[in-house]
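Dear support,

We are seeing what looks like truncated structure output for some complexes. This example has two components. We would appreciate it if you could run it in full and send us the complete token output so we can diff it against ours.
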Amino acid sequence: MRKTVFQRISAFLLAVLLMFGVTVNVSADDSDGAVDFDSISKLLDADSYSVYKQTISNIINENLSDVVINYQMSDAKTVYDTFSKEEWSSWEGMTEELAKESVYLSSKDLGNTTVTWQFNLTSEQAGRYYIKIEYYSCNTSESSISSIERKLYIDNEIPFSEASYITLTKYWTFNYSQNEEENTHASEKPVNTTVRYETKKGDDAGYYKLVEKTYADGYVYTEKYKISQDINGNSMAPEMVQVPLWQDYYCSDSTGYTNENFQFYFTGTSHTITLEAQKEPVVIRNITLVPAPRTMEETPLKSYDDLLKEYADAGYTQASGNSVYEIQAEFPNFVSDSSIYASSDNSSSANYPIDASAQLYNVIGKNSYGTSGQWAAYTFTVNETGLHKIAMRYKQSALEGMYICRTIKLSGGHYGDIPVVPFAEAYNTRFDYNKSWQSKYIGDGINEFQFYFEAGVEYTIYVEVGLGSLASLISEVNDSLNLINECYLKILQYTGNDPDKYRNYRFEAVMPEVLYHFQNEAIHLTDISARFEQLCGTKGSHIVTLDNVARLINEMGAENGLKIAEDLSNLKSYLGTLGTWVNNSKTSSMVLDSINIVGSQATEDALPRANDNFFVSAWFEIKSFVYSFLTDYDEMGLTQIPDENTPSIEVWLALGRDQSQIWRSLIDSQGSYTDSTGIAVNLKLVTAGTLLPSILADKGPDVYMGLASADVINYAIRDAIIGISGNDKNNTEAENAVFTTPNEYVASVTGTANGVFSEVVNDQTFTAAAMNTITIPSKSVDGNSYVNVTYGIPMTMTFNMMFYRSDVLARIGASIPNTWDDVLALLPVLQANNMEVGLDYASSINVMIYQMGGSMWKYTDDPAYAGSRIGLDENVALEAFEYVCRLYTDYSFPVTYDAANRFRTGEMPLVIGGYTATYNQLTVYATEIEGLWGFSRIPGYDRDGDGVPENRDTIGDVTATVMLHGCSDYNAAWEFMVWQTSSEIQSTYGNRMVALIGPSAKYETANINAISGLSWTASEYAAIMGQVEHLSSITNYPGSYIIARYVKFAFLAAYNNSEDPIDAISNYISAINSEISRKRQEFGLNTLENDSDYPGLQG
Amino acid sequence: MSQKTATKRPVQRSEMSKAQWTWKEIKRNKTAYFMVAPFMILFIIFTVFPVVLSMVLSLTDFNMLQLPHWLGTENFSRLFLDDEIFILACKNTLIFAAITGPVSYLLSLIIAWFINELPPKIRAAVTPIFYAPSISGQVYLIWKTLFSSDSYGWVNATLMDLGFISTPVLWFEDADYVMGLCIVVALWTSLGTAFLAFIAGFQTIDRSMYEAAAVDGIKNRWQELWYITLPTMRPQMMFGAVLSITQSFGFGAIVTALCGFPSVDYAAHTIMNHLDDYGGSRYEIGYASAIAVVLFVVMITCNIVIKRALSKVGE
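Here is the complete output from our reference environment:
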């Protein structure tokens, strides 16, 4: 066939165009949300520490000494420069000298987030070093409850993959000390120390720990610790406080796969060490290079046997069985993480203390105390010098057939001030699996450990979570999982997600390495399983998972991969199982009841009782069962019975039980609402939907927390909710006065001048978009005009953001799309790899209308007619609707999809979804891709095609705290609302949620100031704030429920029946408008029979 | 007859007013009234009263939160004259009722009859299999998985495999399919209480009647069914019919569960859905009550018609 010149040229041009279309790479318009894929690729390619260690293993250290690196102030500022004198001088342990030489590493915007240290080494100094960081866990406005996380770069490169998660712990303590007087003999050693635990009833009801110290001259000092109780005798959480402290940190593995500290090799030239903020601010005084042992094989730790020999040589003897110090685990002196706290466990009647009628705190570790590096610390003093054993009563029932490990660290006396691991085996302190409680002397399975303690000296024992002897095995499974996942994605790109099982794909020719890996990993996993069995002594169901995966991939790797097509979907679910397996194995949680320090001569009889006999436990169960009928759960956390005379308000919320308890404790805690106002709060947890009938029956609350914006408006236009911006015709004069008169308490909470509505709710705390959703026009007090009235204070705000798989995008060479054009340009590449983009059509239509500059409503500037006409028939809205429809009809975006699952497998590397909902789901559900994904602002609409979006708004929606008509005390209710939505309380609440439920309980506060106090990483925070600046919202005017319905109908008509999108939506415009008019008539609002009726259009 | 009653002349019905007579009868049967009281009190409070209340509310503009205003028959005139979607909902409901009512009724009857012919042990095993879908609550959601709109949905994946379609069909969001699918699901779940009643009814029939009939000249199984089996179990059939009617007119929850609310383009919108729409999302309880009253009248009428029709069985 002959081609004309024109055809050739046009074909060539087309090809060039396509090429550019595919590789179009738009630079991000500004820094936030932009992700440097180079660094991700580097990180993905970075070796693990074990490989890095191999490369430096032949270097021998000779005559090295410590190298102290002080910061040369250039890009970052010192504490002295960043904060005022009043601020830093209030920090405990901070002096002027220290403040001047320590650098402040910000996590958000108080200073530089990336800080570099420069230093030179001479050629004699070259060698392997540990990196020691002297840091101060400060408590500034940027702080939240997270641990401090940094990325470590050496000479501007991440030396090995583990270095991107450097975790520095904070110290947390509890406010249960009750000591009235000073210990006058604090510097002396007590001759005798006894410890008692008791629960008291009556006036000073509580659960007490009493440490009695007798000194040589007969002086007795009693340390008193108390966990207080509510009116029903339930323990109440003592307040948790972060202790700012100077500490030393040796760079080590936060994942727990490696027990030893990291060694780094430095040549004899100039170097840099850079710390990049991930979470939390920190103050660093200096970094020290501490020489590692001479050769790689040497370890700085002694073995247990050597230590025992040393003890014997030194003449240390076993202490008698009388030397006992009992530690109840619910009284930790310090913990490393705010998520570790005491709780109540009534699963065994042998737990101490126990009460069938109440929840007494008696254990620790029920919630989360299972992540590597977390610890709880207890101080103790023994009465006899000599060797002691440590007995623990615990329940480890999480992983069937597996044991878990704890690392025992000690400080005080001859152990020194910094906690040390006394001998190598202490890393492997082993706790076996058993369904019921166990009571044992701790050891590594071979020896029962003995420790040397001196009488009268105060020691601290740190019970730290570690993977111990299982670390290397779990790490191998993890590597294996990554490799198999890579193979899976390779197959997926080649065959698609639904391969034809009757076709021969010739895997042996196309991807022989995949077959090789499958067979290899099958052998590897079987071997790991066997080693697990050997270590644990039994093959529990947990370990069998590995064999199952091995069997499957062995089958897939055999016969030239003929089975691959058939088994691919199985492999997908097995990968998920394996990911969960690794995650479960890493979280080695156990519940701890007591730790007893006992002289080594003690026998098994000295152990605390593990379980009661059948009759005792049965009787206890029966009692608990009966009491469960008698407990009033509404009273949980009440410290005094509210009497008739104290003012009180009734607050309802329809969240979970955990959430309700956090609010209860926030309301009651010291210096908080009830304490400072004297107003009792009757907090009730109700089921959603209770509010409506309760209003009808006139039994409603004063304040309701977390009402969806659509309901706020629904109730408001029916006169059930008080307009809190004042000047509302439906409000009484007294009600209106509350929001416009100065209010001292409110002013003290918000820091604004006088606490009137206009100052409490301002641009700095809530976005305009958030306020929009709960604000509609209402008749003003004089009844003549319409004014915009707000019906609540926003509590939560949700909006969509774009989640991306950075590893997948980096591999296919794509960048994060900045505009919708970028998304479309990316599609051919994605589709060629059998990948998709996850986008919800309903929200996208709304987003696109606003991004293109349209609006869902007309005449919004005129309160009398706002919301009387839909804006969907404007050209720009029609264009937006058509644009979104085309994404699904022309570009085959999937309409229905399981986002989390496909994101996890990598088939859907871009998903647009609610920022906390998606984040939380991925955090729990897709642990194996942790660190491989992120989120950024959603793409924007770029009308002029210059690659920079003109508008990148997304739609926000809120739930609000509202005050109901019939409220008994407006002032009290208003004060409560302002307190509850204030920045400090919102971030405290969000942090408590994370502490209680885990990192998957991120809270979407509507208070913008509060977001910085939540535990987002620096980059996540920047991304969220980047989107918060670009928010629109759609007001729920009367009748707005009809819009989503008809827009959906129109979309489905365009999608299913290939109707023209503009025709499809136009068909419904008049139906929408007439429904809106009808609804407005119902409420006596102005209506427009047709648009020419609008006063603004006439004349 | 005892001395006492003999001396006293029995009261005649004609000697007293109707109210007096009723009161006297009540006193005479007070034990019976006492025994029926617990049920009647609850029945009146929770069934009769709400029905009456909704009839009253249907004449107002009650919105759940504010005091209602009297509207007279405005709601009804709007319902019939100015609400196209109600008319559409009526059409859909009638289609549902016309198909699922009789079909499920006959299906129940025929399957019950077949099962009745099986040996007792097999019958005991087979009955639960047919009955299971209706007792297992929301198990019809399995259809949502089967006909998922996702390309990984069973039907979509299979059809795509076989090459019939290239992009996934949105089964429950496509006006062409929703009605048909909902009817199929409704039939699948309909073998419920009526079916059990039939099985029980078949069991109660006295075998000797068949023997007598055989002597009297019954020729085949059909005649046996028509002249003996069915007339004997007329009460169960009545019960089943009432249930079928109520079920098919009250059909709506399944549509919402499968197709979302409302179904696309109101393609499977029933009167119950319409009622939910006004009562739930629009807070127009007055109007919703009017819909409920209409539905109530339609159901009552249908029941009367069915009753008449059933009395012809065996004649």
